[in-house]
Design goal:
Layout lengths: L2 H4 L12 H10 L11 H9 L9 H12 L16 H21 L10 H11 L5 H7 L3 H15 L4 H4 L7 H14 L9 H11 L15 H14 L5 H13 L2 H13 L4 H32 L4 H27 L14
């Protein structure tokens, strides 16, 4: 057993998925002053070269998620100073490099006319032919499958809006105003109990699930982690502000109809308003947001900074790509009579 494997993994609620995440967990289990014992960037570069499918590899995605999570609310028992530790940032850059290279291959750059961004985004949405996970959940999913779906989404929904909010200080003018209009609703319009993250936690409780952040991290597969990491990959870099805006625009544009279906699915399973409130809220809010997001936010940024137009579209296409992979994994597992998680959920947990 290596020195890394012998280290305590601290209080982070997850086991290593492979050598990449084991190295990051080993670092976070130590005081930051001791991090130089492990030459993380060099080790990760060598290990990362063996990752065949970075957009789905659980080990790489878990390692990256652990690094990113330090910029939100972190992990109990992990020294907060790890957030800006140079050794860990260098390690994260290696992981991001593998993720970003794979993303660039899957979503190549394209020429975009800045004045057409809003219309282009609606065209991309209309042409998307990914599998309809929401339709399956509305009409066919059983309770165990719905609970699994909620667990998958919990990594993002329990911090909903936070990754997109990284863009606020990086925008100006009309685009910034549009972003703030969208985010104001995401955060409950000034009412803490109506924050979308709080509404999602209420849904989790109604389904007999633990509503604390990262409670189910040990069960989440690579493709799901990638959908969450994409937000932080775009949001944490000022140079990627166009992509995080495009991501949010497409997120809002593709939200209302699926959320109506999710709410209908819960009602079909016998749940009341307490459980469906999160989804019902999104039907109303996101129907209002989609034009603001496409034309005022994404289009406004492209008009103000034309050099970012292609990045805006790239962010939107990247969202659809990873959501398509996410949906296919869930539907394939369920059609085979299997759990879509790494292990089935215990009953009532």
């Amino acid at each position: 057993m290596s020195a890394i494997e012998e280290k305590s993994l601290g209080t982070i609620p997850v086991a290593p998925a492979g050598p990449l995440s084991a190295l990051i967990l080993a670092m976070l289990a130590e005081p930051p002053a001791d991090s130089m014992r492990v030459r993380a960037p060099e080790a990760l570069t060598e290990l990362g070269e063996g990752v065949a499918e970075p957009l789905a590899d659980r080990d790489l995605q878990l390692a990256l998620y652990l690094c990113y999570e330090l910029h939100y609310r972190g992990f109990a028992g992990v020294d907060p100073s790890w957030e800006w530790n140079p050794e860990l940032l260098a390690a994260r850059a290696v992981l991001e490099g593998r993720f970003g290279e794979a993303l660039a291959r899957a979503v190549p750059p394209e020429e975009v006319e800045p004045g057409s961004v809003g219309d282009l985004l609606f065209g991309i949405e209309a042409e998307d032919d990914g599998p309809s996970l929401s339709r399956y959940i509305e009409t066919s999913a059983d309770l165990d499958q719905f609970r699994e779906f909620v667990v998958h989404r919990s990594l993002y929904q329990l911090k909903e809006a936070d990754p997109h909010s990284w863009a606020i200080p990086r925008l100006s003018g009309a685009a910034k105003t549009a972003l703030l209009e969208v985010q104001h609703d995401e955060y409950g319009g000034g009412r803490a109990e109506r924050m979308h993250s709080a509404l999602f936690a209420k849904t989790m409780r109604a389904l007999g699930l633990e509503d604390s952040e990262n409670a189910y991290l040990d069960l989440i597969p690579g493709p799901t982690l990638a959908t969450v990491n994409l937000l932080s990959y775009f949001g944490l870099r000022r140079s990627r502000r166009g992509a995080i805006v495009g991501h949010l625009a497409m997120f809002e544009m593709t939200s209302a109809r699926p959320n109506r279906r999710y709410g209908n699915g819960l009602r079909r399973l016998g749940f009341d308003r307490e459980a469906t409130d999160f989804y019902d809220e999104h039907v109303e809010a996101d129907a209002v947001h989609e034009n603001i997001a496409a034309y005022d936010l994404a289009g406004g940024l492209a008009r103000a900074e034309p050099e970012l137009a292609a990045d805006v579209v790239r962010g939107a296409r990247s969202l659809l790509l990873l959501e398509d992979r996410f949906a296919r994994r869930l539907l394939t597992a369920w059609e085979a009579g299997e759990s879509s998680l790494l292990a089935p959920l215990p009953n009532g947990s």
